[in-house]
Amino acid sequence: GVIVALLILMCFTSVPAGYTGVPVTFGKVADYTFDSGFHFKSPFTNVVKMDNRIQKHTINMAAFSKDIQETSVSYTINYQISKNDAMTIYRTIGKEYFDRVITPNISEAVKTAVAHYTAESLVNNRDQLANEIEATLIKLLEKYHIEVVGTAIEDLDFTDAFTNAVEAKQVAAQNKLKAE
Fold this sequence. Notes:
Helix 3 (97-114) packs antiparallel against helix 5. Strand 2 (19-25) and strand 3 (28-29) form a beta hairpin. It contains 6 helices and 8 strands, in the order αβββββββααααβα. It has a 3-stranded antiparallel beta sheet. By secondary structure, the protein is of the alpha+beta class. It is rod-shaped.
């Protein structure tokens, strides 16, 4: 009786709200998914829960501008995986899709975009830079069935030597105007 009760319990699974269940039987990923809720399954099937809610991550990195000034960038991405393609993501990338796919693509997109601007123009064209990076990420991540919901450049920071040089330049320009 106990064995029969255990087998019956093993035939049911629950998928929490905001997740998609990916059935895996003896290592083979099924071509369908389970939405949130209670489901009947084979006792030999394991259900992997993939989070398809909007997720947020911030990455800090260094990038070089067009004039070879080192810039520290803090970049935030809001993303979610495609519910309908959760089994494909699990089959081809795994649950570590953020580290395997998203992080390297963010790093590449940010470093490439920052390299198109001089350090001084990065501050003035921050919105344009953010739009370029986001457009690049949308293209790069859609082939992995990952939707970019939104992005933001949280912080751009330059070396102390560069910041001091910019301040000295501004003071010199103000002194010149005052003298005139």
